Structure formats: structure tokens, C-alpha cells
Amino acid sequence: MTSANDHHERVAKLTFAAVYPHYVTKVEKKGRTREELHQVISWLTGFNEKALQKQISDQITFKEFFQRAKLNPNAHLITGVICGYRVEEIDNPLTQQVRYLDKLVDELAKGKKMEKILRTE
């Protein structure tokens, strides 16, 4: 197995519940709110508040998380570098979807306007 395949496999097995608190900490440390984080997650995945909490309590993997999600049709508009990779060039669909989420959380933490994060401008 190549290192890229190892990386994709590790991403697939990570649980959303394990990473979620890091998202919360990242955005709150920069003055944004948990509600704004949920708005961003909801935009990308289609999960409402109750469904998002269920994903967390079910301790599902990112693979299951994105299988259950209804990815926003404008997700392809998320571009840029995250974790050293251009999100639009990632060839593994699941890893790309996880990096989409990472990029949105990063943009929120960096203080971007919600309209820009949600690609409505």
C-alpha cells in the first residue's frame, strides 16, 4: 500500500466525534461560535442540528459521516490549500470531502465573512 493510500485509509477511519471538539476549539479560540461552526457543517453536509448531534453520538467514521451526508452542490467551489494540499486537486473523494470541511473550518477561524465561506457571494 502506498503512503497516499495509507493516508486515505487513516482519514476514512477517523471518527467525526474525535475531530469535532478540535473544530470547536479552533473556531472559538478565534472568536467564532459553535453555532457558526454548525452552520458551516450544515451547509456542506445537509445535517441539521439534531442530525449532526446524532453523528457525534453514534461515533461514526468520516467515511460513514460523508456517506450519510448530502454534499452541497457548491462544494466544488471550495478551493485553496489545507494541510499542504490543494483541495481541488485531491483525487480521493472522501479525503477531498474531509478537506473541504477542514477548509471551511479554517476559513471560519480566520474570520472570513459567512457569505464567502458558504459561497453565496
Description:
InterPro entries: SP1917_dom_sf (IPR023204), UCP033199 (IPR014580). This is DUF2200 domain-containing protein. The protein is mostly helical. It has a single domain, classed as Helicase, Ruva Protein, domain 3 (Orthogonal Bundle). The protein is built from 7 helices and 2 strands; from the N terminus they run αααααββαα. It has helices at 3-13, 16-29, 34-45, 49-57, 62-68, 93-109, 114-117; strands at residues 81-82, 85-86. Strands 1-2 form a two-stranded antiparallel sheet. A hairpin with a 2-residue loop joins strand 1 and strand 2 (85-86). Helix 2 runs parallel beside helix 6. The longest helix is centred in the C-terminal third of the chain and has 17 residues, at 93-109.
Describe the structure in brief.
The protein has 121 residues and is mainly alpha-helical.
List the helices and strands and how they pair.
Blueprint: H1 3-13, H2 16-29, H3 34-45, H4 49-57, H5 62-68, E1 81-82, E2 85-86, H6 93-109, H7 114-117
Antiparallel strand pairs: 1-2
Helix pairs in contact: 2-6, 3-6
Characterize the biggest β-sheet: 2 strands, antiparallel
Strand coverage percent: under 5%
CATH homology group? uncharacterized protein sp1917 domain
Unreliable stretches covering 5 or more consecutive residues = none
